[in-house]
Automatic annotation (TrEMBL), chains A, B:
It comes from the Bacteria. The lineage of its organism: Bacteria, Pseudomonadati, Pseudomonadota, Gammaproteobacteria, Oceanospirillales. Pfam families: FUR (PF01475). The keyword Isomerase does not apply. This is Transcriptional repressor. InterPro entries: FUR, Fur_C, WH-like_DNA-bd_sf, WH_DNA-bd_sf. Belongs to the Fur family. CDD domains: Fur_like. Keywords: DNA-binding, Repressor, Transcription, Transcription regulation, Zinc.
Amino acid sequence: MIHDNSQSHHNHNQCIKTALATAETLCTEQGQRLTKVRRRALELIWESHRPLGAYQLLAKLAEEGFNSAPPTVYRALDFLLNAGLIHKVESMNAYLGCAHADKAHKGYFLICDQCHNVMEFDYQDIHASLIEKAAQQGFELRSETIELIGLCASCQSAAASAGASA
Amino acid sequence: MIHDNSQSHHNHNQCIKTALATAETLCTEQGQRLTKVRRRALELIWESHRPLGAYQLLAKLAEEGFNSAPPTVYRALDFLLNAGLIHKVESMNAYLGCAHADKAHKGYFLICDQCHNVMEFDYQDIHASLIEKAAQQGFELRSETIELIGLCASCQSAAASAGASA
DNA sequence: AGAGTTTTGTTATGGTATAACAATTAAAAC
DNA sequence: GTTTTAATTGTTATACCATAACAAAACTCT
Ligand SMILES: [Zn+2]
Ligand SMILES: [Zn+2]
Ligand SMILES: [Zn+2]
Ligand SMILES: [Zn+2]
């Protein structure tokens, strides 16, 4: 596992702080500009481990005085996606901060359909199997969308105790 | 591999014919009604191995005299999805016929980003790894979105010969 | 035929994303 | 440090994806 976002009792301020620091470093190294709106978008996405929709993000930015037209948010998202600082969760049309942006990778996600928290998981072995699978069909793999939907541990226990008391 | 949709030289009429026959059988068995618009939607989706967008499908249906409001097509799509006769490709917001609708499964896809053909591949071993991975996080898996993007064999050779001649 | 159920028609609206071009701001060149 | 150039942001408009809500029609079962 790459990043423990157990969602219940972790120091989430630390998540944000680390992510922002990494973003700074990466952008500086690569001569990319982490402008105000881009930085703030990243912070807002990192406010939780729930993926954030583009228009939700746009609303938050607008509240803070940023321009409120869609291109504002989609440009920021494009930048952050290209920089590897966030991922798009395709099955939710929403965006999630990446906790290990320093390593090039595609996000592999566990999505809880109860609490909507999403955690990213490590995948080297699955990645290898997928490349092989694809190669068997003569297919040259470039990118992956791996999204697993289900119940996270804490929602399972919540459901269990609710069931017991009912 | 479950279904060879090599896209270049296979008998695609056979694909459609088989898919429609399977659809008939399944619907009859389960007391589901494959109405005109549902059947025609399925045929139109099966016209190629490229996923079809809801509004593309709607336009085709409208040309043929079906009602042209969005609910028409989304209802047909819902029916076909629930019946397991088609899959949704999340990363494309588009719909694809399933060639083995008789077995309950989630679609695992290889998507060519050159020609946009999509083929479904078998996944039992990957599926098992994913369940295990999820379980390691205390996660109970319910559903999966697995979409691999890259270059199919024929687009690779096309690119290779183009490169050689240039 | 009548009652109940499923399917379809219709209108309206909400949510996601991009095109195109102008204005501004930051960086690079001189 | 002013000019030139490139990157970013502002603005308007539009395209594409999907669902809510309620009315009408068609089918099923008795
Ligand atoms: Zn956190
Ligand atoms: Zn990541
Ligand atoms: Zn075919
Ligand atoms: Zn399938």
